UniProtKB/TrEMBL annotation:
Chief localisation class: membrane
InterPro entries: TolC-like
Protein name per its UniProtKB record: Multidrug resistance protein
Entry coiled-coil feature ranges: 99-126, 177-204, 317-346
Keyword Disulfide bond part of the UniProt annotation: no
Localization per Swiss-Prot or TrEMBL: Cell outer membrane
Domain of life from the UniProt record: Bacteria
Keywords (A to Z) from UniProt: Cell outer membrane, Coiled coil, Membrane, Transmembrane, Transmembrane beta strand
Length: 408
């Protein structure tokens, strides 16, 4: 019974590993390698939020046709003894039309609303570009860690061979072989974990691109992000300023519309009736609808003026926030740049020199096992720190290129 349980457990573990392998294989199969520019292009063409923004622009454009807003046609019938004892008939039609600048004001308001929808779409497009860029370089970071893992596997595999050879010749104890085997198994386990991480990073990128294809970054892309100097901050500042200034323009036109609604409306009409059931008498009418109680529209116009002030204050606040954020991001970028420069100019060279020297010394018997392990761990740690420094640099550079904004 115990043997049966053990076999069942082993079979279950093998099944779980098989399922995990198939899940990772499903992600890594039939992958399409694309550049960052292509990824951003696909995201902007596929993104549902941008498609919704296009529909909002289309809707506001269609609503321009509602600028001319006449009153509903009024048709009235009257029958009875309103002239004499005879039963007469009266039919009248009345139509009121807006006067003054109300039609012009409505049209201008809709035009500004359509422009505001375009400004909002530009901000959404900016956010998508930032998200795709972050996800793209997150995947490249995963690839760099995977390459480092492969390099470590090669190093420790050689170490294992040397340890086995030294053990066979009696130059060292079995502890070296056991330690090397344990390290190789550890690296192999990390390799499986890294494959899961890459699958997650790939799905994150795929989510922002919003495609069914298993797209991945082009492995020929340089790991270090190349920032466009002085473009990002001026771009977002322009987008933000355009949005709030357009919002102000909408409120201005909204105030004009409320003011124009205080203008009287002109009405014209036609009637036809019988008198003593004899003959058909016709005529025309004309009239005015005068808004004697215009306090409602006046208050709405005042509210729009307050909204103008609110948008201006929001713009000033976000400009200040963006300026402070820019200084903070520049300081962090400079810090990450300095760290990366060290590893590129010195640190990485030291790591390679330590590994090469330690391997030769250990193979020649000039270095003890414990010294070799100590130097090897030091070099590996430097390489890991270099990969992390590159990742931190990329994150800071992208954040500096695409500062976070709020449009509310």
């Amino acid at each position: 019974m115990r043997t049966l349980r053990l076999n069942t457990l082993q079979l279950t573990n093998k099944t779980l590993w098989l399922i995990a392998f198939l899940l990772v294989s499903a992600v890594t199969s039939a992958q399409e390698k694309i550049s960052l520019e292509k990824a951003i292009e696909l995201a902007k063409s596929n993104n549902i939020d941008l498609k919704i923004a296009d529909k909002e622009i289309e809707k506001q454009t269609v609503l321009k046709k509602t600028a001319f807003q006449p009153e509903p046609l009024e048709v009235q019938y009257q029958g009875g003894q309103f002239n004499s004892a005879d039963y007469d008939h009266n039919v009248s039609i009345q139509q009121y039309f807006p006067m003054g600048n109300i039609t012009k004001a409505n049209r201008q308001l809709q035009e500004e609303l359509a422009k505001l929808a375009e400004k909002q779409k530009a901000l959404s497009s900016y956010d998508i570009e930032k998200a795709v860029t972050l996800a793209y370089y997150q995947y490249l970071y995963g690839i760099s860690i995977q390459k480092l893992n492969a390099e470590l596997n090669e190093i420790y595999t050689k170490f294992l061979k040397n340890a086995e050879l030294r053990f066979q010749t009696g130059e060292s104890g079995n502890i070296e072989v056991i330690s090397a085997k344990a390290k190789v198994k550890e690296i192999e386990t990390q390799k499986a974990q890294l494959e899961y991480d890459l699958a997650i990073y790939q799905k994150q990128l795929q989510f922002f691109i919003q495609t069914d294809e298993n797209v991945v970054p082009d492995d020929k892309t340089v790991l270090q992000y190349s920032m466009v100097k002085e473009v990002g901050n001026s771009k977002i500042e322009g987008l933000m300023t355009d949005y709030y200034e357009q919002q102000i323009s909408v409120y201005q036109k909204e105030a004009n519309t409320h003011k124009a609604m205080r203008t009287p409306k002109l009405g014209v009409g036609y009637f036809a009736q019988t008198i003593d059931t004899k003959g058909l008498y016709q005529g025309f009418t004309a009239g005015l609808q005068i808004p004697l109680f215009g306090g409602v529209n006046t208050a709405k116009a005042q509210a729009s003026a307050i909204s103008i002030s609110q948008s201006q204050l929001a713009l000033d606040k976000n400009k200040l926030r963006l300026n402070l954020q820019k200084q903070e991001l520049q300081n962090n970028f400079a810090k990450q740049q300095k760290s990366l420069d060290y590893y590129q100019t010195e640190g990485l060279q030291y790591a390679n020199q330590i590994i090469n020297t330690a391997q030769k010394s250990y193979a020649n018997g000039d270095m003890s096992y414990w010294s070799y392990i100590s130097f090897l761990n030091q070099a590996i740690d430097i390489k890991k720190q270099y990969a992390e420094a590159t990742h931190n640099f990329n994150q800071s550079a992208i954040e500096l290129q695409f500062p976070t904004i709020k449009n509310n």
